Amino acid sequence: MSRNFLVVDPAERPDVVRGLASLARARILRLLHRRPGVNVNDIAEALNLPQSTVSSNLQILESAGLIRTETQKGRKGNQKLCFSAFDEVLVMFRDDVGGVDANAIEVAMPIGLYTSCEVSAPCGLCSPQGIIALLDVPGTFLDPDRMNAGLMWFTRGFVEYQFPNNARLVGRAVTALEFSLELSSEVPGTATDWPSDITVAVNGRELGVWTSPGDFGDQRGLYTPDWWKLKGSQYGMLKSWRVTPDGAFVDGVRISSLTPKDLDISAHHSIRLRIEVKPDARHPGGVNIFGRGFGNYDQDIVLRLTTEA
């Protein structure tokens, strides 16, 4: 499915920045992302806001080009239906925009599209619309509906993904790679102090371990759906694993000496990512993996390859 992106320089489009700089307008955009084609009354009722407030904020959003409207006939005359114009908005300064994609190749993988798994209960999968199959049954992780997952959790075990090696397809050598994803520990209920050692491996080589500090439920995740119980895991931390000629890093902290050459990327048509909680981990505190529709970052697992010019 194609997605619409908007990349703006705040110095050139202050109207867009103003459109985003409001909690009410952010809630409206989030609602339109989930329920395209609703009118002013529907928005006001869903968000528990006065109709006048919704109308004025919709005007600002439409003026900035962040939403579009269509007029359709209703039972009591014409009604204006509202739609989000973009799936994602990226605010970047012009110098950054010019240098983003020159030697970069990016692939996003939904969290449910793993190619192999072995997990132990408690475990489960959810889409933004509801629970997938049965909770605490590892066999659920083979359910075809897993492709719609926006949240998964398990106590021990792993999930492994195969990303296409698009650098090989275009004949370019990889000088660095980075994985970005939202994670937390997993405990029945939630617990801020619940460490868990999460191991990440690429092409069968372990990059290193990151210890998640806890399972966060103090407030609802920005994108976590309203139906998901508040006592459940709400959001995680956005973590970045990066492999460069200088070694492997988590959020800029060096964790091992592995380099892209050690991963033998050019020899394979795919790049395998494994996320694991080992049974012999010092802190075997489970893992939550957040994707689109859950947590604080509405994103899939993102692989970014940096290539030679």
Q: Helix and strand layout, with pairings?
A:
Elements: E1 5-8, H1 14-20, H2 23-34, H3 40-47, H4 51-63, E2 67-74, E3 77-84, E4 88-91, H5 94-99, E5 104-109, E6 116-120, E7 124-127, E8 130-131, E9 151-154, E10 156-164, H6 166-169, E11 174-184, E12 196-202, E13 205-212, E14 237-244, E15 247-250, E16 253-256, E17 270-277, E18 287-290, E19 301-307
Could you characterize the architecture of this molecule?
With 309 residues, this protein is of the alpha+beta class. It folds into 2 domains: 5-91, Orthogonal Bundle (Arc Repressor Mutant, subunit A), CATH 1.10.10.10; 101-307, Sandwich (Jelly Rolls). The protein is built from 6 helices and 19 strands. It has helices spanning 14-20, 23-34, 40-47, 51-63, 94-99, 166-169, and strands at residues 5-8, 67-74, 77-84, 88-91, 104-109, 116-120, 124-127, 130-131, 151-154, 156-164, 174-184, 196-202, 205-212, 237-244, 247-250, 253-256, 270-277, 287-290, 301-307. Strands 5, 7, 8, 9, 11, 14, 15, 16, 18 and 19 form a 10-stranded antiparallel sheet that branches. A 5-stranded antiparallel sheet has the order 6-10-17-12-13, with no helix packed on it. A two-stranded parallel sheet has the order 1-4. The longest helix is centred in the N-terminal third of the chain and has 13 residues, at 51-63. The radius of gyration is 21 Å and the shape is globular.
